[in-house]
Amino acid sequence: MNSPTTANRRVWPLWLLLALVLALSVGTLVLYVVNRNTVVPASWGTLGGSRANLPALINVLLIGVAVPLLTTALGVLIVSRQGRNRVGWLMVLVGTLYLLIPLLSELTVYMNLSAAAPLAGGQIVAWVSNWVWIIVYALLVLLMAVFPDGHILTRNWTLAIGIPLAIFTGCLLIAAAIEQPMSSAYQVSNPFVASHPGSIYNALFAIGVPMMPLMLLVVLGEVAARYRRSGLVEKQQIKWLLVGLAATALLVVLGLALAFAADLPYGALLVNAAPILPVLAIGFAMLRYRLYDIDLVLRRTVSYALLTAVLLLVYFGSVTLLTSLFSRVTGQQSALAIVISTLLIAALFNPLRRRVQHAIDRRFFRSSYDAQEVLEEFARKARDETDLDALLAEMVRVVQDTMRPEHVSVWLRKPDAGE
Amino acid sequence: MASTDTFSSKRTTAGDAAVGGLFHGLVAGLAMAVYIVLAGLMQGIGPVMIWTRLGGALDNPVSGLLAHLAVSGVYGVVWGLLWRPLHSRLSRIPAWAAGLVYGLVLMVIAQAAVAALNPLLMDIGLAHRLVAHLVYGLVLGLLTARSQTARN
Questions:
Q1: DSSP per residue, B109-147
Q2: pLDDT tens digits, residue range A26-35?
Q3: Which end of chain A, C or N, has fewer beta carbons within 10 A?
Q4: What is the pLDDT of residue B8?
């Protein structure tokens, strides 16, 4: 193992890189402020028009500051503790490259649209901006695939993930590089291609885009296979990743629903904020910060989600039934139905929460449930047992069953030693 | 000690009885739903049509089925609360028989008050409606008896 001094020596350039990411994040923010009144054409992820509004500012703060800084900082921390693990290095790379997406995007606006005349090199910046996101997406997929030990599970899984990853990256990189005008770079003209190669572009796009969900599915399969083979600590780490991914999926679906169904600009913010969750989850899991709290998070989330669903169902049923009954009896609608239904929900909340928690613990968190059963049994025996030695033996057994320590000792104060 | 009470208590409170009734009511509601679908098929009415009509203004079969389950759950809560005092006084009455009587009472209430909610349910015929409610009551009673045996 490396000594801390050796590890620190190797990591110090990364702390410099983090400082650079911070400086460039501030630069991105400054560029947004300069560009905010510029009318931009519609582009991927941007509606077009002026961006002098709160959702656009929050968006830049999220993707230009929060996501890259947190990702890079967590990556540097992981490298400083586990230098040989590729996860930390990948996170540093993802964080740094992620920053390039908003930075180059703002530079594209500034050099091609905000300035009085287009600046030299503006089209090259736009060209890079048009394809850099593809590399970030591929690296994010790779990061999930090698988490937590830094390697893909087996050679077969490497092939299963590597083939769609290579097709996705290759096809979309070429498609983005030859696109004219560039749809991810505010429709700026491509400096290297005179006219849009429609048929080649469409073919590459049609092959590359379906690889995105396919890659995710294959990686999820690999994570599931890894979970089955892993030890206790690795299982907890994978649970963090899965919770992060589930929350990401929820945010993306909610964000898309808000953006397209309700036409709210804040919907896109949820989608943009979503990638930070698996990254944070990976960071927590790698640094093993409160690693075992994940069970509590899962138990509470599942039980309260179920509780909410059942209470909603009861409320709905009660209002329907009572409204129908009251309107039959009195001939008019009565607010009493809502009052009674609300009281019913309030009365049911605690017993229902206990029942749901008990059922979930028994089904999914067997060890915790068994521990409760053992403690319940011990409490019963402790009430009836009068022999101290038998009680001690029972207590040791209970501690072993519930906490599974390597060693248990009990110290008893001699009766004549104290008061 | 408070923790000892929490772990060792086997007494059921009114809340616990209501929650037990709620879950039993949901399962019994599912059994009743299966019977309604079968009865509807015998009358030439498809399940989607039945549940869509029960969904009322929401006009889709899933909301109709959810509405049926929600009402079943609430009737289960009422059953859970009624069964506790009833059982302590008339312990000889088997739960399944009491459940059948409860189903019959619900049938009367449904005839008087809930019929307007789902005219199509009325089309499956009085006999099928009666059997559907008896199925609900019977399953409710059997589940109550089962959980009582498990507790004892």
A1: HIIIIIGGG-HHHHHT-HHHHHHHHHHHHHHHHHHHHHH
A2: 999 999 999 9
A3: C
A4: 36
| Backbone dihedral angles phi then psi of residue A105, each to the nearest 5 degrees | -65, -45
**What does the H/E/C string look like for chain A?**
CCCHHHHHHHHHHHHHHHHHHHHHHHHHHHHHHHHCCCCECCECCECCECCCCHHHHHHHHHHHHHHHHHHHHHHHHHHHHCCCCHHHHHHHHHHHHHHHHHHHHHHHHHHHHHCCCCCCCHHHHHHHHHHHHHHHHHHHHHHHHHCCCCCCCCHHHHHHHHHHHHHHHHHHHHHHHHCCCECCCCCECCCCCCCCCHHHHHHHHHHHCCHHHHHHHHHHHHHHHHHHHCCHHHHHHHHHHHHHHHHHHHHHHHHHHHHHHCCCCHHHHHHHHCCHHHHHHHHHHHHCCCCCHHHHHHHHHHHHHHHHHHHHHHHHHHHHHHHHHHHHHHCCCCCHHHHHHHHHHHHHHHHHHHHHHHHHHHHHCHHHHHHHHHHHHHHHHHHHCCCHHHHHHHHHHHHHHHHCCCCCCCCCCCCCCCC
Which of A310, A314, A350 is opposite residue B15, by nearest beta carbon?
A350
CB proximity list for A20: less than 8 A, separation 6 or greater: none
DSSP state of B152: -
Which residue among A320, A375, A376 sits closest to B71, beta carbon to beta carbon?
A320
Lookup result for tokens 């904020």: A273
**At residue A369, what is the residue type?**
Y
d(CA A8, CA A2): 10
Q: How many CB pairs lie under 8 A apart between chains A and B?
A: 73
Which residues in chain A are closer than 8 Å to B13, comparing Cβ atoms?
Answer: 351
Q: Do A351 and B23 touch (CB under 8 A)?
A: no
Cα–Cα distance measured from residue A161 to residue A401, given in angstroms and rounded to the nearest whole number = 41
CA–CA separation, A104 vs A28, rounded Å?
A: 8
Residue among B19, B20, B113 whose CB faces A325 most closely: B113
Residue B42 burial class via C-beta count within 10 angstroms: exposed 0-12, middle 13-18, buried 19 and up: exposed
d(Cα A397, Cα B99) in Å, to the nearest integer? 45
Q: Which chain A residues are within 8 Å of B112, Cβ to Cβ?
A: 328
Smallest Cα distance from B67 to chain A, Å = 6
Contact yes or no for A372 and B72 at CB 8 A: no
d(CA A142, CA A152): 9
pLDDT level of residue A262 (50, 70, 90 thresholds): low
Instruction: Tell me the residues of A at the B interface, defined by beta carbons under 8 Å apart.
Output: 310, 313-314, 316-318, 320-321, 324-325, 328, 344, 347-348, 350-352, 354-355, 372, 375-376, 379-380, 383
Reported as a single tens digit per residue, the pLDDT across A266-301 is: 777 788 778 788 888 888 888 876 666 667 777 777
C-alpha distance from A406 to closest chain B C-alpha (Å): 26
Instruction: Decide: pTM greater than 0.80.
Output: no
Q: How distant is the Cα of A318 from the closest Cα of chain B, in angstroms?
A: 6
As a whole number of angstroms, the distance between CA A388 and CA A394 comes to 10
CB neighbours of residue A187 within 10 Å: 18
